[in-house]
Amino acid sequence: MGGSGSGKTTVLRLIGGQLRPSSGSVNVDGQIVHTLGTDQLYQLRRKMGMLFQHGALFTDLTAFENVAFPLREHTDLNEELIRTLVLMKLHAVGLRNAAQLKPAEISGGMGRRVALARAIALDPELIMYDEPFAGLDPISMGVTANLIRNLNDALGSTSILVSHDVKECFAIADYVYFLSSGKIVAHGTPAEMAVSTHPYVKQFVNAEADGPVPFHYPGKSLADDLGLHAGAGR
Predict the structure, then answer these.
(1) pTM listed for this prediction
(2) Within-domain flag for 8
(3) CATH code (residue 73)
(4) Are 4 and 159 in contact (CB under 8 A)?
């Protein structure tokens, strides 16, 4: 599922130039990704922010140094300006006073917020979130969802969320795609999807055990395994 701000919402299967598509292409900002050279890819990546599922913070660096990393990697800004920008990003996620703490010294929810500050360090046009709510307690989940929505609006970015958390996504997304077996099976606004009669959407939204996604792993029936057939044992 994905939400967007002022930009468009879309689904990207491959991005960043690491993998080449076996068919079709990935078009980002008018550029075909797999045709770009190293320098062009670097320039394109500068326009992107990525929040990994488990944060992927550098464990030996402080929160400050983690957020400063993309600024030092992609810009020639002096350290005084980098310091100002980093503190502003950490302040935006409520962790300016945790700047000198390392990932092991903060909670999982706080680590996710540091990772979010790093993802927006360069004010990217496109921000991608991989399961941003995974493993978070209800408070951290709500805080993270609101941050994603508010930062998206403040930056005027396009945001793509991949998530299984229906409630949080429906609360902040502008448009939603449902995917199954690598294909888009339904799409629409959260309001449209909430009342959809599409079997897959209905099962997913209502957390139903049985539907297009089977509860039981495919294979032999219980009757077959237990030999419970007509006339068995006679």
Answers:
(1) 0.74
(2) no
(3) 3.40.50.300
(4) yes
3 within a domain of the structure (yes/no): no
Token pair 């320039």 is at which residue?
43
Query: How far, CA to CA in Å, does 190 sit from each of 2, 23, 38, 222?
Result: 10, 31, 38, 39
Within 10 Å of residue 199's Cβ, how many Cβ atoms? 14
CB contact at 8 A, 102 and 60: yes
The answer to whether 217 touches 191, Cβ cutoff 8 Å, is: no
Q: Which domain holds residue 209?
A: 27-226
Going from the C-alpha of 137 to that of each of 78, 101, 133, 140, the distances in angstroms are 38, 21, 9, 5
Cα(142)–Cα(209) distance, integer angstroms? 26
Taking only the tens place, the pLDDT of each residue in 117-163 is 999 898 888 888 888 888 878 888 888 888 888 888 888 888 898 88
Number of domains within the chain: 1
Write the Ramachandran bin of 100: left for phi over 0, alpha for psi from -120 to 50, otherwise beta.
alpha
